[in-house]
Design a protein that fits this description.
Length: 344
């Protein structure tokens, strides 16, 4: 039997011989398997032979064998540069596949619409205020001139937390909170959530959003209210929008009005329209001159100051602006609906 150094000499020759004949990466892979293959590679088998040697012989032979292994590995990596292995064979990934698209989310269409409203009023010199969604009976009703048991409270029924606390039915209580702290001139808008005991239908929700407006100064008249609201509605819907002021009643304004815009769903042409009930008009806001009693409740002199206020339904107005025939779509969380608004 040949000694280990002799065998190594023979295999070195074989390796060099085969290496000189390599034509492509397939030959290269075969050569690698022949020498380094885990079960039957020549080097693996030679290493197994070490087991039968004495400790001294093992040490000397082991070192020669390791040198030979390093030689083989170095030659193979040199050859690999000449015939590189394709990446796909080395990795489990198909790098040519398109990547997965990440959906980052976006503001809700009602948030976008609220920002649009805020922008128009800010451009007219208004500032933005906020107030609590859980309100006291005093701010939601009494200070706004709804005494206990007043029948006007019926149209603003809500969820009561206890005798004194309730979910606010409109953004008007924030008028009181602001007027208690700030003295005129006041020029603010107040956006926020409101709640009502209401059955939902295509234009009504039990929870929706309003934006309140309040201006208080000397010499303020109904003409200022009308001019500002006309400017605002045209900025939102375009110059051609048809709107009308209609007399109305609110305990905290006198005189009071409601503003309707033409029905975007049917333009007055469908007597069965589910949005306007066939009238051709849809109410978007209530407004009026601040009642002198409200000024007295916050210690502002009604002989010296006057003011106007309005409360607009954001969801209702957004549905008309985007020509959506159903207000509840905003709350169904259907991404096919919501994604349409991302770039508006
Ligand atoms: C009020 O809430 C008064 N606070 C508005 C006001 C403010 C008047 C300041 C005078 C001075 P009203 O209940 O009409 O008013 O609601 C105002 C607007 O909110 C409506 O025109 C409508 O656009 C919207 N709205 C009312 N109820 C609902 C509802 N259930 N679902 C969706 N939008 C509604």
């Amino acid at each position: 039997m040949n000694s280990l150094p002799e065998k190594i000499k023979k295999y070195r020759q074989l390796f060099n011989d085969l290496a000189s004949k390599i034509k492509d990466k397939k030959d290269l892979e075969e050569l690698r398997q022949a020498f380094l293959g885990r079960k039957k590679g020549y080097l693996t088998l030679l290493f197994e032979e070490l087991k039968h040697l004495s400790p001294e012989e093992k040490k000397a032979a082991g070192s020669i064998l390791n040198n030979f292994k390093e030689e083989v590995q170095a030659s193979l990596s040199k050859l690999e540069q000449k015939y590189p292995m394709p990446r796909a064979e080395k990795t489990l990934f198909d790098l040519t596949l398109p990547g997965r698209k990440t959906y980052w989310g976006a503001p809700h269409p009602l948030t976008l619409f609220q920002r649009k409203i805020e922008k128009i009023f800010i451009s007219m010199g208004f500032s933005v205020e906020e107030g609590p969604e859980i309100e006291t009976d005093y701010y939601n009703f009494e200070a706004l001139n709804f005494p206990p048991y007043h029948p006007a409270r019926d149209s603003w029924d809500t969820l009561y937390i206890n005798d004194k606390l309730l979910l606010r039915t409109h953004t008007s209580p924030v008028q009181i909170r602001v007027m208690e702290k700030k003295k005129p001139p006041i020029r603010i808008i107040i956006p926020g959530k409101v709640f009502r005991r209401e059955t939902s239908d295509p234009t009504h929700l039990p929870m929706f959003h309003q934006v309140e407006g309040l201006v208080v100064d000397q010499g303020i008249t109904f003409a200022h209210l009308k001019g500002t609201l006309e400017y605002f509605i045209k900025a939102l819907f375009g110059e051609k929008i048809k709107l009308r002021f209609r007399p109305s009643f609110f305990p905290f304004t006198e005189p009071s009005a409601e503003v309707d815009i033409e029905c975007i769903a049917c333009h007055g042409k469908n007597s069965q329209c589910r949005v306007c009930g066939g009238t051709g008009w849809k109410e978007i806001l209530g407004a009026g001159l601040v009642d002198p009693q409200v000024f007295k409740n916050v210690n502002i002199d009604p002989e010296k100051y006057s003011g106007w206020a309005f409360g607009l339904g954001i969801d209702r107005t957004a549905m008309l602006a985007y020509e959506i025939p159903e207000i509840r779509y905003f709350y169904e969380n259907d991404l096919r609906f919501l994604r349409q608004f991302i770039r508006r």
